[in-house]
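Lab notebook, bench 4. We co-purified these components, and the gel suggests they stay together. Before we commit to crystallization screens, I want a quick structural picture of the whole thing.
Request: model the full complex, all chains together.
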Amino acid sequence: MNNIPIIKLENINFGYDSRFILNNLNLEIFYGEKIGLMGPNGSGKTTLLYILTGFLKPFSGKIIILGKERKEEKDFLEVRQKIGLLFQDSDAQLFCPTVKEDIAFGPLNLKKSRTEVKEIIKKIANTFNIQHLLNRPIYQLSAGEKKIIALATVFAMDPICYLLDEPSDGLDETTKKRLKDLLNTWVKTCLIVSHDKEFLRDVVKKIYVLKDGQIFPYQDFFQEG
Ligand SMILES: Nc1ncnc2c1ncn2[C@@H]1O[C@H](COP(=O)(O)OP(=O)(O)OP(=O)(O)O)[C@@H](O)[C@H]1O
Ligand SMILES: [Mg+2]
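Here is the predicted assembly.
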């Protein structure tokens, strides 16, 4: 499995209007790789994650995920079950009335039994220290709490690869440390979009930069202070 990329993008072109955001972009993510993705505001990082998960369709280029080319909406249903996306905006992630239902949604969708789902909720609640939030309505949560719950919904699905858009944004130091520990133990393969250099340094092995619609390695990232 190690020598076949989980994700492969070939010559992806995309723009919202006449302006190109992704320009013949290529990317490969192999099983076991932990990659950070940086780049200026508006460079297209979130757009790239939406292309990978089928929420946006490229003008041209090939998307190969888990060994299959993905084109139509139906191709991406499997992708979204196996590749976990954390949205940059937690409100886009959370749509159930309560925290517990949001955490249960993914596993139920994966056809887990009621008993299995209960176990998953228990485990995830312990892992993220969110037992006290389980019965709360989403609209009552603080921004940081929403981020934690959004992360919890992704981890509840136990995806093969995690695509995380600004996962540390708005988290306090203790919660950030808990997330780093989780990324270092539980998660095998991930692409983490972040402006938080210190966070990335502690959790990924490789950094890419998105610039002028293409992806480049950030050679000196781990040497820089
Ligand atoms: N629906 C849309 N219609 C038109 N332009 C859009 C749309 N969504 C995003 N854009 C533009 O596309 C560009 C890329 O946006 P994107 O959200 O991918 O950037 P980003 O790299 O994730 O930025 P940030 O670091 O601020 O999160 C931006 O200039 C943005 O204004
Ligand atoms: Mg973004």
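The two ends are 35 Å apart (CA to CA). Worth comparing against the SEC data before the next meeting. The mean pLDDT is 96.
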